[in-house]
Here is the input.
Amino acid sequence: MGIPQIVATVLAGAVTITAVVLAVRAVLTITAVIRQGQPDPERFSAKGTRTATMLKEIFGHTRMLKWSAIGAAHWFVMTSFMILFLLVLEAYFEVVSPTGELPLIGHWVVYGFVTEWIGILGLLGILYLVFVRQRSKPGRQNRSRFLGSTMWQAYFVEFVIVGVLICGFLIRGFKVANDTFDFPVWATPLSHGVGSLLPAASDGPTWVALVKLLISMGWLITIALNPTMGVAWHRFLAFFNIFFKRSPEKPAGSGLGALRPMMSGGKPLDFEEADPEKDQFGVAQVEQFSWKGLLDFSTCTECGRCQSQCPAWNTAKPLSPKLLVMSLRDHAYAKAPYLLGGGGKDLTGEERATAAQLAHMDVLALAEADRPLIGTAEENGVIDPDVLWSCTTCGACVEQCPVDIEHVDAIVDMRRYQVLIESSFPSEAGVMLRNLENKGNPWGAPQNTREDWTKGLDFEIKRAGETEDFEYLFWVGCAGAFEDRAKKTTRAVATLLHEAGVDFAILGEGETCTGDPARRIGNEFVFQMLAQQNVETLQEAKVKKIVASCPHCFNTLGNEYEQLGLKVEVVHHTQLLSHLVQQGKLTPVQPIEGDVTYHDPCYLGRHNRVFDAPREVLGQAVGNLVEMPRNQERSFCCGAGGARMWMEEKIGKRINVERTEEALATGAKTIAVGCPFCSTMIGDGVTGKGEQENVEVVDVATVLLRSLKQEV
Ligand code: SF4
Ligand code: SF4
Here is the structure.
């Protein structure tokens, strides 16, 4: 070992020891912060499915590949990061000896070949990702997906990967120039190419290996000193976050469909016995999120995919799911020293720490602990109320997130505390909640008018409760029963079912709101009240199958009533209609003229993956179906979900206008929908644009009925 090797070995050893000590400390910090969260025992179920999903999502990059070129580039970068770990390990042998190599496999041509090509593709991949970040960086692109991301961290990570890869080729190049490289040209062409340009230098591999280790350990030290550096830590945390996602069996959007029930101490809250002084009602402090919530926040890569798809962000509202997650993460880590030092408030708001403990606490952590979780900038709040109430719960963020973060659960948990304990929510929504409590529907319409839509139909409809002799219960929904535009859809669905010979019944006055708007605004109490009532009614009526014409009812009945013990088969009317058309029980004879476009409702498409059935029906019933640029899982919300239907939209552009413009730009004369709320929102948008005489907004059922009977 010569002098250069001794110097390089000492330096590499010193920097490695420092990096490892700091990294262990950072891992302990991250673990301690996550452990501050509430229990969530269900995350440990179905370990086999969880493992399979995690491996598939990570090694198959199934979520990332939806952004095809970026996904492919990221796959090579990820793979090169894993494989080239071996080359970093090899660098320790190279600082000791310029001809050093990994024991056992360092000589193996397969090792040389694989590392060479993964290195080349990883280098191309990272250069492409650098290009993408530059192309869409804030300032160059309006409301860029990277706006608000910590850019220096991303640049640093990109620099490290490029630096380590280049060093790898330089080391091999010097070995080629020194004639100490055994791999053939066909296996390692770039290394041989680099070697042909370099002079022979016996200590070259040692010095470059030292630089490579300094860069690698510099990276480790930097991320260890920044435990909130998600762009780097996600390389480790993503495995756990995906493994522990809420519904591992779902290929995408684990936090979609059903909302997580309101939990206290790791168990669903029973409102009959709940006590706000003993039980947690939603989330008022960051440590009241579950540990999985805190793991979610820690894992965010700041990629901004969620931000780029969010309807609130895209219409100039203050909500960005990325910035929300980052704010919660930064707050959790800044508050952690206070919590870990014994601090924290109990459910009555009393401080847990003793005066002596508080006296020794870091002042910055104490100041952070004082911040209200929800509060305006003047109140030094972590999340602004306008951010919290801008969410439509459309799920676009959850759908897009490559590391399976469950934003909607976090947002609704914070809403729950605001509504149930603080009574703090947009005042105009109060009318809707009162109507739900007193009249069982958001509009406050008299219950005895629920069946008015049946008047004038030339066939009889059975009433569940009066007979058990029916196959499907047709769940009409409040909009379908009381709202004029939706009533037409209800009549169309009933007529189609009748014509196809489907044996169905309705609950009529026995039906009340499923509770969806109450649950999504955060009023779990009203949701539970309505849901209990409906579950009892459905059980008494011995209902086995339900067809629902509202995607919100469809989602709540099919996914959420199971939490209250009801198990029934629930289909959306477009699914049943598609089936009936395929069976030849409904035969379109005259396709609708002119182009038709279809708007995917969030709670039908993204939340429940029903993309094909409405298109299958339209495929038979219309002449030409044209798609909007944002369709299926990337469909853009109409603005009504998350109880936003009953809140004023005062900030930015109206979401329904944005979506209507997209629909009108297709040139279609008919905008088909599958949801009464989308129908209202887009219908209003069309009227607002003065296009109501030229463009019609109608449900898929009405389109199908027209193709059977031209006079409808
Ligand atoms: S659910 Fe929709 S509106 Fe809410 S944060 Fe996510 S993308 Fe934005
Ligand atoms: S998509 Fe997921 S990882 Fe990317 S910024 Fe949003 S929350 Fe973070």
